[in-house]
Amino acid sequence: MVVPAPSALVELLKPITWFAPMWAFACGVVSSGSGLQGRWPVVLAGIVLAGPLVCATSQAVNDWFDRHVDAINEPQRPIPSGRMPGRWGLYVAAGWTLLSLLVAAALGPWILGAALFGLLLAWLYSAPPLRLKRNGWWGNTAVGLCYEGLPWFTGAAVMAAAVPDGRVLMLALLYSIGAHGIMTLNDFKSVEGDRRTGIRSLPVQLGTDRAARLACLVMALPQAAVVALLLAWDRPWHAGVVAALLAGQSALMRRLLADPRGQAAWYNGTGTLLYVLGMLAAAFALRHGGAA
Prior knowledge:
It comes from Methylobacterium isbiliense. InterPro entries: Chl_synth (IPR006372), Prenyltransferase_related (IPR050475), UbiA_prenyltransferase (IPR000537), UbiA_sf (IPR044878). Keywords: Cell membrane, Chlorophyll biosynthesis, Membrane, Transmembrane, Transmembrane helix. This protein is an all-alpha fold. The chain has one domain: Farnesyl Diphosphate Synthase (Orthogonal Bundle), CATH 1.10.600. The radius of gyration is 19 Å and the shape is globular.
């Protein structure tokens, strides 16, 4: 049996994608308002579960079921290039799923429940028969929930050992909705392969110009709602920070909209950074105010 090189395994699991759920989990911890004394081991284990385990599993699952699309869009990836030979991509996806569940079970019921939900969505997103990613509306919703809302909820629930405060849930939901727009921009790199293989991403359905305008709107409106909520919760300084970061994103969006296909990757490396900084500012607003 041919065994893939460790470098191919690392590339399959895509460490660069782990940041978003790890960051969201940390935001959930912060927003809970709970102290970290004696909780560091659980928090660190939760961050590892969110990124190198559950998120990495989703990447392996996606690459296995996307291998024919990747042969068109990105033939250098481990599976279509042959560096992850045979059915090794599927074996890694299944093995990482099991490992994620074992770690989650050891961390308690809240984390296990969240991990089960996230892993289920990961498989439903990529695998037949549902293959949610075949339609950008559904697929991007699933990814937004898994990357932002679910880990935020989990981080807060672990610290509170209960369902988080309603304000925490509201912020987690709003930033999940905004992530739908980020996922739309991520689809710009694979428009040709998606079109040829029947994947109806939003750039395929709407065209790149309309999809970019929609993505900007979907990213901006939830953040505007966060600003309004923070003001209503008497957190003007935190609201001001989120508003300033949103204004920065709006300025960057002008360049994106001038050349959506050419600038989508650039915006995901610049505007998205401002987006996630706003998440942390909002999380600190709840920590500063305590639970309602």
